[in-house]
Amino acid sequence: MRQAKHFPLAIDLPDPARTLYFPNLPGRGGAPDAVLDYGDHEGYKRLDDNDPRAVYWRGFVGTFIAEHLGLDIDKAWHISTWPEGYALWVKERNSSKPQIDSYLFGFGGRKRFRTPREFAFHAVWLYDDNYFAAGDEACQCTLHTGRPQEMINEEWIYGHERRRSSNSHGAAGRDQTPQAGGGDGGAERGIREGGIEGGSDDEHSPIVQPFIHWSRSKKYLLEATGGPTLNPQWRPPLLAAAIQNHQAPWATPSRHRPLELVWVSVDPLDSWIRGEETIRWWPALVHSKVPGQPPQTSKVALLGVNTHYIVNETRIHAWKTQPLPHNFLQRPLPWLGGQRMRSAEALNRFRPLPDCLDPLPDPFPRQYDLAILPYSIALRQAARIETQYNPFELVQQADGSFGYHGLYYGPERIQLGDLVRLRPNRQGFESRGLARRWLPASIGANSRPLFGLILHVGENERDGDLRFKARIFELQPFRGSNHPNGNDNLPDAPDGFRFREVTTSMSPAPNLPIEDIACRYDQDDAVLAPSSGGVEVTGPDATPGGIQATNWYRSREEGIRGAHSEALEFFYGAN
């Protein structure tokens, strides 16, 4: 099977790790009579899914859907099989001509999709719950709209690319079209390098046309679920009317699907402690539904760290949605199976921070897997919930606030998974008699700086002091040391470093006083700036818990550069 040399995908080589599955839901299937009744009696032969022509179709359609989802398409995606009731058939011809005309039946009657691109638009509508729920008007395929495929291509592919190209040569000298997520890289290379060749929409033509920049012009549909809104002038009148008609139901619980990630506002689980307080925007997963169309939400699972708690829909005051693609939903979720379930009283000890959701990174890194982004944000938020109140939370104060202990960095706290710079070096820990218990022999000098990965922050049961547990790391160069000059006793400075864990795996993590933290090197959003003050121990009336960090706000890049600068100084005596 021919492949255009410019096209980056090996579309006829399925990868099991890059497989998409159509949802097996009522109403998503096709019309089996269109396949069974006509079948071989009408001169058609059904193709097996592993036939090269079927693999080609499945690869084209799968990559089309993946691009729409914003996934990386530098390598092809394949659909596992056709939706229920759909099947690919080949037209039987006489022996003088090969059987090359393949068609996909299942739409109904004798209607058929003649090319993978014709079906790709319909496939996205079947695959994406948001589009499918908007009704037939949302589907842009040729059989639903009645328009020729050439007109559809012009509107959604070629015309858009010409407009994008003309914008790029405008006065501003740059592309003014909103950019999609990480999945556009392969398609853009196909445009820049290969152009649009061949001119045929037949399934056996070389695939040098860009797959689709559909996500650029279609993601506005997600505005109904709180997603990104792109330029409104891309909205066709028919589709705009469909979305307008279906916009209201998206705000109701009945439109949430099983295993969909949602953010909910709920009453306190232990109301006799928290009174009338409302816990706002707790991450949760829709747990189950009442059978029927549309699906009716009945319960959600409030997410904690390694735990969850089921609440009924009637306890939820408000909802926000963050949909997940199907290919991610089919993976095992951390809160399902084998995880211990805490009581409502235990879960009630923590709640979301006032600043609610983290802002999404914009633009996304090109290699970022957009499929796991919403759930990773939820788990990070759940970690914040868990560390917002420790197990030794105080009772409600007279002013209505809750006293609790913790290490503050700006408006938030040191939390699980944070990378911190430790004040003591190895020599400092040895002077306390601690190093032999959990630090093996180190190849570095005793003055080499140490870093900790926070595992726990809480009170010491014996003396009430605030302490933390951490895995201890030191920075090592990627390459070995060398001495280019015999008169120089220092090696060359390395190009980069890696973190090497120096705590032994067989020993428990050290339990250290909170004052051992000098600063925070956060790998996500902000870091604590090293300063002479570092962490201040203030009076008991200053802040709950009496601990406050100073000079805390830096960017991630500056923090990592600071860590490397310290390593250069301690490793090599270089600034």
Overall 3D shape: elongated
Sheet/helix structural class: alpha+beta
* Helical content band: 10-25%
Q: Strand percentage, roughly?
A: 15-25%
Q: pLDDT average, as an integer?
A: 55
Tell me the total number of β-strands.
21
How many discrete domains? 3
Explain this structure.
The chain is an alpha+beta fold and 575 residues long. It has 16 helices and 21 strands. The chain folds into 3 domains: 16-224, no CATH class; 252-388, no CATH class; 408-572, no CATH class. The strands form 6 sheets. Strands 14, 15, 16, 17, 18 and 19 form a 6-stranded antiparallel sheet that branches. It has a 5-stranded antiparallel sheet with strand order 10-9-8-7-11, covered by helices on one side. The chain has a 4-stranded antiparallel sheet with strand order 2-4-5-6. β9 and β10 form a beta hairpin. The longest helix is centred in the first third of the chain and has 20 residues, at 149-168. The chain is elongated and about 90 Å long. Residues 186-205 have a biased composition (Basic and acidic residues). It comes from Tulasnella calospora MUT 4182.
What's the quick description here?
InterPro entries: Clr2, Clr2_N. The chain contains 16 helices and 21 strands. The protein is α+β, with helices and mostly antiparallel strands and 575 residues long.
Comma- or semicolon-separated keywords:
5-stranded antiparallel sheet; disordered N terminus; alpha+beta; 3 domains
